[in-house]
Each structure stands twice: as structure tokens, then as C-alpha cells.
Amino acid sequence: MRNAVLAARELLENLTPLKTDCGRLCQGACCRGDENTGMLLFPGEEALYKDCPFARVVETDFSLGAAPALLLVCEGSCDRKNRPLACRLFPLFLRFREDQPPVLRMDARARAVCPLTDYGLKALDPEFRQAARRAYELLLEDEACAAYLRALDEAFTL
Ligand code: SF4
Ligand code: SF4
To answer: Where are the domains of the chain?
Structure first.
């Protein structure tokens, strides 16, 4: 398990996009997938879900960075202390730019489910944004995580 992923998870352990429960706005839309919908796991994160009671790890047929992409498919509820990093960062995304540092954005893929995406980054709790920025900084210091984030940006840039 990579230290950067653990540290990033820790930073977002107790923070959520709003100070209040944003799930009330949408009845927890981002947790209501089906058995084919999942959250992408960061490099090495699958080790935390070997015997997970609320979710299973599913292989995909594509790669992100050097490794095949893995999804965590959950049952729609979880032990929040063990939710994956992608859930902790949602609805944020790291966008890479030429000759400039990467920048935090709302995840375009979240638009279909998350009402917060209509209001922009400024609507989110500043503490959450700050923790997410720091989490991404830590991830970028890790070679495999940085490659994963770049590949994710390339794969999902619209
Ligand atoms: S979809 Fe957006 S508003 Fe709804 S629970 Fe998830 S992050 Fe919060
Ligand atoms: S793992 Fe938890 S936070 Fe993530 S989608 Fe499933 S229920 Fe929601």
C-alpha cells in the first residue's frame, strides 16, 4: 500500500464537500450505483479491500498509468472510515495543463449525478478544497500515483 494514498485518504477522512450533509440534496446520488458501477481505486489501494464486507474489487479492461485499472463496487453504503480515496475526493478532479501546474476542477463526470457541480468550486467547503489540494500534492510526489492521475486526466478529458 502506497504511503501517499494512505496520507491522502487520511487528509480527507473527516471532511466532505460541504460542512453539512450534501447527501440530503440528492439522496446520496453518488453512492447509488449498480453492480456494474464503481469507483476507481488508486495504485495499491485494492490491498485495503481484500476482505471488505461492503464492496468488491473488479478488474477493468483498461489501464491507468502502468497498471490495469481496478474498480471498487460497493453496495451503496460503507464504513465511512474505509471509503476509497476516489469517494473522498468526489466531485473533484485534477486537471493537467501544459507548462502550468495542475489545477483542481469539478469532475466533469460528476455532472450527471452531483448537484454541487452546478455551483463551482467556490461553493465547496474551503477546508475540503484545501485538504483535497494537499492530497493531490502528496499523490503527485509518488511516481505511480502521478502517472495514474495523468492517465486519468487524459482518459476523461472531454
Ligand atoms: S452527489 Fe454530490 S451532493 Fe450528492 S452526496 Fe455526492 S458529493 Fe454530495
Ligand atoms: S464506497 Fe461508500 S462513499 Fe463510496 S460510493 Fe460506496 S457507499 Fe458511497
So the answer is: 3-156
